Amino acid sequence: MKKSSGFRSHSADASPRLVKPRKTPVQARSNETVHAIREATIQVLLETGAQRLTTTRVAQRAGVSVGTLYQYFPNKNALLHAVLNEHFSRIIDALEQACTASHGCSVEEMARTMTLAFIDAKLRDARESVALYSAAEFGDAQAILADVRKRGTAAIIRMLRSAPGARFPDVETTVMVLYTALAATMRVVLESGASKAMVAATRRELVLLAEGLLTRASLSQRG
Predict the structure, then answer these.
(1) On the CB side of 111, how many CA atoms lie within 13 Å of its CA?
(2) What mean pLDDT comes out for the span 141-169?
(3) Model pTM score
(4) Residues above pLDDT 70, as percent of the chain
(5) Residue 80 in contact with residue 18, Cβ under 8 Å?
(6) 100, 155 in Cβ contact below 8 A?
(7) What average pLDDT does the structure give for the chain?
(8) CATH number of 84-219
């Protein structure tokens, strides 16, 4: 079955690729409308998944006409693109800020700060995270994820290169492994319900994992 079949909406989409929103809201009322549409998108995704999401369902949930929705998002692809991009950009923004604030710190402190920042960012948008996992295989969603992954790993690499007296033999691979472990673990936690006990244990274990990985990688280059 072709993936494009999952993108049929009120008006059939000719292309399976996600496209950018038609226009950017500039007035308060427009911002409220776009916010309602995006919130409705999350709700529909949670209920039906990306495969069955349609612009008609989203418009009905948002309390707007399909024509109004199309003023901002010309089709389902554009809607998913906007929600995915905004969501993951917020998470990577938080990670980048934590990494920048940790420049010059010890490797252990870097590991703890950036790990907890990533976890907190994912938990802050927990509903969205769970909803958008179902959209991760559509259109150019993978390109969006690749871009934010690139931003996140680049921020971690810059941070590690500022660690006093620390050297990493293959910093790109080390960071790729760490980032993948954080993202994959948080997906399991979120999709499992993210209970308080699970979140507390995950915070503890991921900090230990990050500290251990980065400390050992750094130690291997210390004289």
Answers:
(1) 22
(2) 94
(3) 0.82
(4) 85
(5) yes
(6) yes
(7) 87
(8) 1.10.357.10
Query: Which homologous superfamily does the CATH classification assign to the domain defined by 19-77?
Result: Homeodomain-like (1.10.10.60)
Phi, psi of 29 (to 5 degrees): -65, -40
Looking at residue 74, what DSSP letter applies? S
Reported in sequence order, the residue ranges of 39-84 that DSSP labels E, i.e. its strands, are none
How far apart are the C-alpha atoms of 214 and 209, rounded to whole Å?
Answer: 8
Structure tokens at 141: 């969603």
Give the integer Cα–Cα distance in Å for 131 and 18.
17
Cβ atoms of residues 222 and 106 within 8 Å: no
Distance of CA 105 to the CA centre of its chain: 26
- Residue by residue, what is the 3-state secondary structure of 94-163? HHHHHHHHCCCCCHHHHHHHHHHHHHHHHHHCHHHHHHHHCCCCCCCHHHHHHHHHHHHHHHHHHHHCCC
Helix/strand/coil for 21: coil
d(CA 87, CA 65): 24
Where do the domains of the chain lie?
A: 19-77, 84-219
| HSE-CB for 133 with a 13 A CA cutoff | 17
